Amino acid sequence: MRRSFWSVCLIFVLAVGLVVSMSYSAQAKTEWKMCLGDAKGGTQWECGLRFAELMNAYTGGDTVIHLFPNGQLGSEQETVQNCRLGTLDFSVVAINNITPFSKTVGLFTLPYLILSLDEAVTLTQGPIGQKLVENTIRDAGVRILSWAYSGFRVLTNSKRPVRTLEDLKGLVIRVPKNAIMIASYKSWGINPTPMAWNETFTALQQKVVDGQDNPYLTNYVMKFYEVQKYVTNIRYIFSLQPLIISEKLFQSQSPEMKKLILKAGTDATEYARQFNALTVSKVQKLLTDKGMEIMDPANNEKEWIDKATKAVWPKFYKEIGGKEKITEALKAVGR
Ligand code: MLT
Q1: Quick check: 23 pLDDT over 90?
Q2: Whose CA is nearest to atom 4 of ligand 1?
Q3: Is residue 168 over pLDDT 60?
Q4: What is the C-alpha to C-alpha distance for residues 79 and 67, in angstroms, rounded to an integer?
Q5: CA dist., res. 226 & res. 212, Å (int)
Q6: Which atom of ligand 1 is least distant from the CA of 150?
Q7: Residue 268: pLDDT above 70?
Q8: Superfamily of domain 30-332
Q9: For the chain, is the Cβ count within 10 Å smaller at the N or the C terminus?
Q10: Ligand 1 site, CB within 6 A
């Protein structure tokens, strides 16, 4: 009698265990990984986090996306390749780190092509941006879901105030491994040092390089004020930070899930646009509070603009799909 009581108890416990484990697997979540080149708090983080929250909400809590900031899963260019291979699900990177894999995207890294946030929004969200999304899927195996906007890349250095191209001479400046950006600095008379983003802070700290360029907010969240003193307010590239998904992963989803991913991407873009508009004006003060000196280039940046547009644009006509792509972009923004 006693034995059969304990046998019944055991069967009951096993049955409960089975039901619990079955219901657990019925609720199994989809877990994805997203890498971000920048630190928490920047535009990449805000856009990526919003996307992850929206995906979680749109799927009733069934999709969890884990964010890995500070290039923990590789350099930005490595993460683009890993998304192409399908070994990484998502990444948020600067547009200049996609260009090496899909040359036509170089249109958006041409110096002085995009002159304001409004122009960046018009170009990325209009037909030109849509075409570049398609080209990126074709060439790089990644799909741009969202565009985050970080503002103009400004020049920082640890050595001296820079206002003119003469002041720039002799400085060792880190640039991304991006042919258009390398050519821009060459047009200004110096040979820059191409280097992956996740090696940049250490290189600045150890004085392997004297300076670099990135938007104000990026410079702040990356704590560059600890290793850089002078900021020159050049406006040569308006930094776009696309959130990409592995096209392999995207194509493996159900039609319903694809719709939700695209919707979360569009909604995160709108959030990222508002985030940029709200914060860019405050960051300069945060940087000066940390001891940085901010200055404008001399003569409204005229010598910088003339040299870069004359030397760099024609050099890349072929890669971006022809001179007419520039004409089309300028027309779209009313210039
Ligand atoms: C770079 O300089 O390589 C990138 O612009 C960094 C970033 O993604 O913010």
Answers
A1: no
A2: 94
A3: yes
A4: 13
A5: 14
A6: 9
A7: yes
A8: Bacterial extracellular solute-binding protein, family 7 (3.40.190.170)
A9: N
A10: 37-38, 76, 93-94, 96-97, 176, 197, 214, 218
